[in-house]
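Notes taken during the Thursday session

The instructor put the following on the board and asked us to keep it in front of us for the whole hour. The protein is ATP synthase protein I. We were told not to look anything up and to reason only from what is written here. First, the residues (143 in total):
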Amino acid sequence: MNISKTKRNFIASLTLFTVLSGGIGVLILHKALPGHYFGGYPFIPVYFYFFGLFSIYMFDACRRHAPQKLVLLYLAMKVMKIILSVILLLIYCIVVHQEAKAFLLTFISFYLLYLIYETWFFFSFEVNLKRKKKNKKENETVV
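Then, after some discussion, the predicted structure tokens were revealed:
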């Protein structure tokens, strides 16, 4: 299976980020906010992890087959993520009334954390890509 360096780096850092943020979340809910841990907590980091995996595979496929649509795909993925998240929040709150507040606050916290993480990852990827192109142009003009 051919896996790009960017995809491999994203999957590795996403896995590490998910394990760390999930673990820190458990510690916060058990130590700092005792009694606020709820049964649906493990679902939250898993949801964002799988959505991140789905996103990187979609971006890689788009980069290979339709690179001119990459920005459109990025925006579509963000819209799809927020719509799916709102649907999941509504379903959980309807099904589990007593844990709704803790679930909502935790989910929103993870949503913001993953938004910052993904933005940082793709921004640094673009900066490195532009830097490589610039260095390549400078090397071509020198030769």
